[in-house]
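Re: duplicated header lines in exported structure tokens

Our pipeline writes sequence and tokens for each protein into one text file. With two proteins the header for the second block appears twice in some exports. Here is an export where it did not happen, for reference. First protein block:
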Amino acid sequence: MRKEMVAEMLLALFSLFSFQINNPVGLPIGSVLPKAGLAMQDVSGKTSSMQQAKRQNGLLVMFGSNVCPVVQANQSRIKEICQYALDNKIGVAIINSNEGGRNTEESFESMRVYAKAQSYSWFYLLDRKSVVADAFGAARTPECFLFDMNNKLVYHGAIGDSPGDIDNVRRHYLHEAIDEMVAGKNILVKETRSIGCSIFRG
């Protein structure tokens, strides 16, 4: 009887937690890219903006982290989809908005070390005071926002399903959205539920 009660309590807590982290938030689909021209420090040492990162077919913005376990567990997927975006003439900007960790693992120097270790060939930008995350309504890492050539948001959410087990991925949501956008088709799945670490705004 006691074991059943404990199991029911754990299930209830899991359900509540899942709802909280899965509930989609952020910019409504169709929104214009916010803070497009805001100058941010890139790991290259230069100052860049999301508008500068944009390419012919649009822009992929992803909120990232140096230490988030979910980001680290999905790093191969992150690199794969970012390269796929670039191959399709879509710019890529990963944004680090963890202002609360600037004195430790989320410092700019740590960002540079991490980007080099992961062989990033795209922008990795420091979001001071989390102003970009606030403008996007971004809540976690990783969280993805795909914009078309007109800076309109066409997809928001996860890279794909099964973030905890790459071997069990069945839907590559962001990959599908990129294909549909580049082909000029309607995005069939415009918003999905992302799971990850909370952005530490400080």
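Second protein block, exported in the same file:
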Amino acid sequence: MSPELFSLQGKVVLLTGGYGYLGQSIASGLAEFGAHVFVLGKSEEKFQQIFSGSKSISFETCDVGQTASVEAAFSSVAKNAGKIDVLINNAFFCRGNDVEKMSDDDWEFSIEGTLNSVHRCVRAVLPYLKRRSRGKIINVSSIYGMVAPHFSIYEDFPQQLNPSHYGAAKAGVIQLTRYFAVFLGPHNINVNCVTPGTFPSAKTQENNAFIAELTELSPLKRIGHPDDLKGAFIFLSSGASDYVTGHNLVVDGGWTAW
């Protein structure tokens, strides 16, 4: 098997949420395999703090909550880079995690930021991919779009609970992936999903007791590290996955296998 099978040389990748905790590793991994990654976000300052000096990772202003902003960003990249090969929908925003006291506004805001924003970006990229009859779309879900949380471990750590709107929206992302995989199949466009498991942020990892609980529930007996996600995105962005579509690639250390 040739290493070129996984090469991303010359590929133009749009990545929302690329300067976040997981997005940084996703962007770096794609760049390592030859892609030119355009990180789409609202803060160029945050981007520069992480990727300053990189020749293969660029910034493009984009608010995934606003259709006009998304369309302008995609148009700008396509004009300057000449094409779009891959879209990765990694960004999300939500608020509120008290299930019994959650307001309608918090629910709607979070569905907008976790599900509607993905649909908005998929819709915006279609003209660029259909024009060339090729391309790949990769959505990012969560194990909490597949299974409910282990509520017992959150009794002592309620602030860490994954909220109901997040799980509902991430489940929607998986179904949206399947829908567009079938819809876009005749156009030679692959649509897949990556579902990470427990990848607690650096701040969350300061809570040793909580991390110990997560570790015990993992068959691999460890939490996920951002670099554990690189392979999934390289595979789904490359020619190695040309006959893979409508698939949900779970990267969870076996969490959902229990």
